Amino acid sequence: MTKSRITCLFVDIGGVLLSDGWGRNSRALAAKKFGLNSQEMEDRHNQTFYTFEIGKITIDEYLKRVVFYKKRSFTRAEFKQFIFMQSKECPSMIDLVRKLKASYHLKVVVVSNESRELNAYRIRQFNLEQFIDFFVSSCYVHFRKPDTDIFKLALDIAQVPVQQIIYIENTSMFVQVAEGLGIKSILHKDYKSTHAQLASYGLKV
User: What pTM was computed for the model?
Assistant: First the structure.
């Protein structure tokens, strides 16, 4: 059977184009830097992160619940700055997606779980809007992966036949959910393997 020509990429941000925005390792580093009880902080994070990532509370409200529920020796601004500074780019992956978009005139759609303020910072700081067409971010659409609704919404917004889409994602469960909807997916582990898998679909740079 002839493979459909790929005209659209769905791509995650954290773990693919950039480092995780506010993952477990970053939270552990924050607890150490600011002298917090890491287990208590993690427990409180887990109790409220869902509402944070679907955009129902601001970063200030999140920090009030997780860190500043009692007096601290540091400021909220200092803590937020630390959060933002954890984001690092994955230059090879950004370059790859940019080149694929330019070479094949692809539509590029982010499907990502991100809180509103951190998402906005990462888009601006790393110029993601220069090559991403749409941001289907959990904080904007009020669904988060692995909810199938976020993928269905991305399909509706993209207006591309599902057989013409490839999704690049670093979380195996999310890959499986997308594949269950008929979206061809690549479990991203590193640049080399993802580059090779994209080439197998005819997307070569």
Answer: 0.94
Assigned token pair, 61: 């409200």
Residues whose CB is less than 8 angstroms from the CB of residue 52 and which lie 6 or more positions away in sequence, other chains included: 59, 62, 115
Q: Looking at 86-204, list the stretches that DSSP marks H as alpha helix, in order from N- to C-terminal side.
A: 91-104, 116-125, 138-141, 148-158, 172-180, 191-200
Confidence of residue 199 (pLDDT cuts 50, 70, 90): very high
Length of the chain, please?
205
pLDDT band for position 1 (cuts 50, 70, 90): very low
Q: What is the pLDDT of residue 4?
A: 80
CA dist., res. 105 & res. 92, Å (int): 19
d(CA 72, CA 79): 11
Contacts within 8 Å (CB) and 24+ apart, 34-40 = 34/67, 34/72, 34/74, 34/79, 34/82, 35/73, 36/67
Candidates 37, 2, 16, 17; CA nearest to 123 is 17
Q: What is the pLDDT of residues 126-136, one digit of tens each?
A: 999 999 999 99
Residues 106, 100 contacting (CB under 8 angstroms): yes
**CA–CA gap between residue 132 and residue 2 (Å, rounded):** 28
Buried b (16+ CB within 10 A) or exposed e, 85-108: ebbebbeebbebbeebbeebebbb
Which residue in 176, 113, 171, 177 sits closest to 143, CA to CA? 113
